[in-house]
Amino acid sequence: MYKQWLKRCELTYIYLTMAIAKNGLFGSHTGKVGNLVYYELNGKNVVREIGKNTKPPTEKQLKVQMETELMSSFFSKVLPFIRVGFSIARLGTALNAHNIGMKQPRELIIKGLYPDLGLAFDQIVLSTGKLTPAVEPEAAQVAEGLRFSWHTDPQMEWPASNDQVMMLAYFPEEEVIAYQLFGSNRLSGTDVLDIPEILQDKYMETYISFVAADRKDLANSTYMGSFNL
């Protein structure tokens, strides 16, 4: 039995020579072995099968592919913002911020009929948490960029009064963002998102949210509309 076990180990070792065994023969692996790819994802060892599909894709498959590309591209562009915005939602999971964004219901954030698909920006969420969202928020273009304002109560108690505003403008045609992660406190009732002059007359989609001063909670983001459409 020992010789048979040893022989299996030898065969396994030969089979794994295309991958890297970080912690010995029976540890985690990274690399390609045959049609399997081993890699680490958020601290976990993951394996996936690769292969070539010779069948032409169906219209449904093409639709799903386009939806995935639209969503993935957008959440990649806003990643600096959602890393904070989804930081609480990630706790206790193996998900990263991009993963959480991609889990949003496609039937809500994808609009149009294939192949004329687009993003429903007013349905996209960029932060989640238990803090109070912006109350009666408004956004207006000013010389420096965008002025965000919201209702505030002078008698607002701490720590809510110290929540900091988060602001974002996404430029779909340029595929870039302007953002502020830790702006004025909630009590101030207003803040300005600086936007480079070259982008101020471009089409933009805008959002506002709040993060706790100790970074332990967030508000759900609020869509603030488009400009220069």
Distinctive features:
229 residues, alpha+beta, Immunoglobulin-like, four-stranded antiparallel β-sheet, 5 helices, 13 strands, globular
The tally of domains stands at: 1
Cα radius of gyration in angstroms: 24 Å
* Strand percent estimate: 25-35%
Give the SSE string: HEEEEHHHHEEEEEEEEE
Can you tell me the CATH architecture? Sandwich
The largest sheet has its strands arranged as 1-2-3-4
Report the mean per-residue pLDDT as an integer: 88
- The residue fraction in helices comes out at 10-25%
Tell me the name of the CATH class: Mainly Beta
Topology:
Blueprint: H1 2-15, E1 19-21, E2 29-33, E3 36-41, E4 44-49, H2 59-77, H3 79-85, H4 97-102, H5 106-109, E5 110-113, E6 116-119, E7 138-142, E8 145-149, E9 164-171, E10 176-180, E11 190-194, E12 204-211, E13 222-227
Antiparallel strand pairs: 1-2, 2-3, 3-4, 5-6, 7-8, 8-11, 9-10, 9-12, 12-13
Question: What can you tell me about this protein's structure?
Answer:
The chain has 229 residues and is an alpha+beta fold. The protein has a single domain, classed as Immunoglobulins (Immunoglobulin-like). The protein has five helices and 13 strands. It has helices spanning 2-15, 59-77, 79-85, 97-102, 106-109; strands spanning 19-21, 29-33, 36-41, 44-49, 110-113, 116-119, 138-142, 145-149, 164-171, 176-180, 190-194, 204-211, 222-227. Strands 1-2-3-4 form a four-stranded antiparallel sheet, with no helix packed on it. It is globular, with a radius of gyration of 24 Å. The termini are far apart.
